[in-house]
Design goal:
Strand content of chain B: under 5%
Distance between the termini of chain A: 75 Å
Largest sheet of chain A: 5 strands, parallel
Radius of gyration of chain B: 20 Å
Shape of chain A: elongated
Order of helices and strands of chain A: HEEHEHEHEEHEHEHEHEHHEHHEHEE
Oligomer: heterodimer
Strand order of the largest sheet of chain B: 1-2
Largest sheet of chain B: 2 strands, antiparallel
CATH architecture of the largest domain in chain A: 3-Layer(aba) Sandwich
Number of domains of chain A: 2
Radius of gyration of chain A: 24 Å
Largest interface: A-B, 35 and 31 residues
Order of helices and strands of chain B: HHHHHHHEHHHHEHHHH
Number of helices of chain B: 15
Number of strands of chain A: 14
Helix content of chain B: over 70%
Structural class of chain A: alpha/beta
Helix content of chain A: 40-55%
Chain lengths: 407, 338
């Protein structure tokens, strides 16, 4: 009796042992691109060609992963960051994406830049079931988990931002007449659609729309036309050069509407200064990231970390360049996802963790703006805060606004 | 000095290439063909994709070679025809469910028409002026594709996603490998057609025009007809290449067909050797792989490295791959004698 009991215990113990070791074995799961020592991450950025200014984003991210590796990696694994140039050409992006996935065997492609390039590889990535994580484009199409479960955006979409402006105008100027100037491409059209969706039944508040081509030397005529339409709200969906022209011209023809410029054109150095500070007073915009040139963040712990990082790992990077702030924030979000993955570094789990971020705050986002995702919400950042230009800098005001439509 | 005399004394823009020197010898052709047939069986899908692109750009360079090397006309507008071909295939496949293989001849015919029509006004221009006129075409094309009027079909700035075809008859090969062999067959057919075209009466007419327009017309060649015909044929082949490109890349967008593509094709032709048809594939390899090599050397300065490499090629072998091939042949000949 005694011995059989002993035997039973022994059998039980072995069973438990097998089970637990099995569990321990099951805990470490890898797909191509991940191992006990390494996580391979691919990236596609235009280092050359017309959009090469964005190359800084790739360089910042590389530097950030170097910092993570120097500090011991993620759960003991070092990041290998392979970044290729697509010169902003969609066919080249396809070639580079295939090289990353099939030849370099990366676990995922992170922060690939540009709407056309990402559109070109989206179908391939989803067919291959490789994460196309935190793409660097403001188009709204990346939040489509049903059709493209392997593709996720990062920054607030242009439409999200436009909804916020619409909500602001509806609240502050319910009887206003809106004039819209927009660039005739996907960027401009996305904003206009967002504005109209945001205004909803009151879309007729828009009394004039003018589009311009980037090839036009000057947009003065458009501004004059918008003024003649009798608008008292002016929403300028323009890239920096044209936004600056618009501000200056409006002031010259003595037109002083409530003016809103989009986030991409909110740079003090590239827009407000050339347009003239005296012409720029009171202009509104919205933002989600901290501006490294703004003295109010001088003692901010997050920004201090960012500036220390630049000094140590990417000394040639310019803290005033929005691209460094962007790259830092995106890379930090990816590191958070990979940390959450633990030892289960399968592509499935990467997407699952990316879709379960809860109140995550990268160092460079404005206080109060948090990243939240879910299986049905693939838009990490959807909040912005309004700001008003005063003196020589932007003053944030009001609450953090969520760009999701309520009506 | 009369205008006619001026034209006569003007040296021709493109160096005369005897038509015998336009092709490869039998032995070399067979080796190249065997490589093109066998290599995909042992390499990864990604390499097969690159080889498909190599053939496709090779076709586009070949088309330019017929125009410039054959009839002596310059074009910096090939990207426009490539775009028309790509969009024709993509729209027919995605909006009208036409079989991909059928879209290619249609793309070719539409581009032939476009090229022939563009050839009419281009008749009045020559040399750098023609190059500039075609340059305008290439610059205008991406914007035309963005026009709201066409957006129903073209998808506007967002472009169109194209479905990649599966291998037919249940063949147990991957999509990439099928597409490669499909492309290879078309490329070979067009290559053989082009070689024969240049050897034919029309080809001789092209070359007579290239070498001396006035002498050619004195011999009874309809200069206007053959010049526009060269444009048409070149555009037609480029269109087929564009259609294949759209299927291989699975995506068309205005940003894919900018002036950069036209310049790349021009570059490919020069590197491959103007007027030497087999050089097209070498030129195509140059424009696909050298930017990758340049990027490998320096990411920040990839453009500058590419420039240096290009400069070296032009400086050391100004006649491109043709020159290398000729030197190689001479060496081989000497070797045999010894």
């Amino acid at each position: 009796m005694h011995s059989s009991q002993q035997r039973r215990i022994a059998v039980l113990a072995t069973a438990v042992l097998i089970l637990t070791s099995g569990a321990a074995f099951a805990q470490k799961k890898y797909d191509t691109g991940a191992s006990d020592t390494e996580i391979k991450i691919g990236n596609i950025i235009p280092y050359s060609g017309p959009a090469s200014a964005y190359g800084v984003i790739g360089k910042t991210e590389e530097a950030y992963f170097n910092k993570i590796n120097a500090e011991g990696g993620i759960n003991g694994r070092k990041i290998t960051f392979i970044s290729y140039d697509d010169a902003y050409s969609p066919p080249k992006a396809v070639e580079q994406a295939r090289k990353l996935v099939e030849s370099d065997n990366v676990l995922l492609i992170f922060n690939s830049l540009g709407t056309p390039s990402n559109s070109a590889i989206e179908k391939y990535m989803n067919a291959k079931r490789v994460p196309q994580l935190f793409v660097a484009t403001g188009a709204s199409k990346w939040n489509d988990p049903k059709d493209f479960p392997w593709t996720m955006g990062w920054q607030p979409s242009y439409q999200t931002e436009a909804h916020i402006y619409a909500a602001y105008v509806l609240k502050e100027k319910p009887a206003g007449k809106i004039a819209v100037l927009f660039q005739n491409d996907d960027f401009g059209k996305d904003y206009v659609k967002g504005l109209k969706d945001g205004l909803g039944p009151k879309a007729s508040m828009i009394v004039a729309e003018e589009s311009y081509e980037t090839s036009e030397p000057s947009i003065d005529d458009h501004i004059v036309k918008l003024k003649t339409a009798g608008a008292d709200v002016f929403i300028s969906v323009a890239t920096p050069k044209f936004a600056a022209q618009a501000i200056k011209r409006a002031s010259e023809i003595d037109w002083h509407p409530l003016q809103i410029v989009v986030n991409v054109s909110s740079s003090v150095g590239a827009v407000m200064m050339p347009a003239g500070f005296e012409n720029s007073q009171g202009i509104l915009s919205a933002n989600y990231a901290k501006d490294a040139g703004d003295p109010q963040w001088a003692d901010d712990p997050g920004m201090k970390k960012f500036i220390d990082f630049l000094a140590q790992y990417y000394p040639e990077g310019n803290k005033l360049d929005a691209a460094t702030v962007f790259g830092y924030g995106a890379a930090q979000t990816l590191v958070e996802v990979l940390k959450q993955c633990g030892d289960d570094l399968t592509r499935d789990n990467v997407m699952k963790q990316a879709a379960s971020l809860k109140d995550f705050q990268p160092d460079t986002l404005l206080p109060g703006i948090k990243i939240n995702t879910s299986a049905s919400d693939y838009a990490p950042i959807k909040e912005l805060q309004m700001m008003r230009f005063k003196g020589e800098k932007w003053d944030l005001f009001g609450d953090i606004m969520n760009g999701e439509l309520t009506h | 000095m009369s205008a006619a005399e001026e034209v006569v004394t003007e040296t021709s823009a493109v160096e005369a290439v005897p038509k015998r020197a336009m092709t490869l010898g039998y032995g070399t052709s067979l080796v190249v063909l065997a490589l093109l047939l066998l290599v995909p069986l042992v390499v990864k899908n990604f390499i097969i994709f690159q080889m498909t692109m190599l053939l496709i750009y090779g076709l586009a360079v070949l088309a330019l070679n017929i125009l410039t090397g054959g009839s002596g006309q310059f074009s910096l507008g090939q990207s426009a025809f490539y775009a028309i071909g790509a969009y024709t295939s993509a729209i027919l496949m995605e909006q009208y469910n036409v079989n991909y293989a059928l879209t290619l001849p249609i793309a070719g015919i539409i581009c032939f028409g476009a090229g022939f029509l563009f050839g009419q006004p281009a008749l009045r221009l020559s040399g750098v002026y023609l190059a500039l006129a075609t340059f305008a075409l290439a610059t205008a094309m991406p914007q035309l594709l963005k026009l709201g009027f066409f957006e129903k079909w073209t998808g506007g700035v967002q472009g169109l996603v194209v479905t990649k075809p599966d291998a037919p008859f249940g063949l147990p090969i991957s999509q990439d490998m099928w597409l490669y062999y499909f492309t290879l067959v078309i490329t070979l057919a067009i290559y053989i057609f082009s070689v024969n075209l240049l050897k034919s009466r029309s080809g001789r007419a092209f070359m007579a025009i290239r070498d001396n327009e006035i002498a050619a017309s004195a011999m009874g060649i309809d200069v206007a007809l053959y010049k526009t015909l060269a444009f048409g044929v070149s555009a037609g082949i480029t269109g087929v290449a564009g259609g294949l490109g759209a299927i291989a890349v699975q995506f068309v967008a205005p940003d894919s067909y900018t002036i950069t593509l036209a310049i790349s094709l021009f570059l490919g032709m020069v590197v491959g050797g103007v007027g030497w048809l087999p050089g097209s594939i070498v030129g195509s390899a140059f424009i696909i792989f050298v930017p990758n090599i340049a990027e490998g050397i320096s990411k920040g300065l990839s453009g500058a490295v590419f420039g240096v490499l290009l400069f070296l090629v032009i400086f050391l072998v100004p006649h491109g791959a043709r020159q290398v091939a000729i030197v190689g042949q001479q060496l081989a000949g000497k070797f045999r004698k010894n």
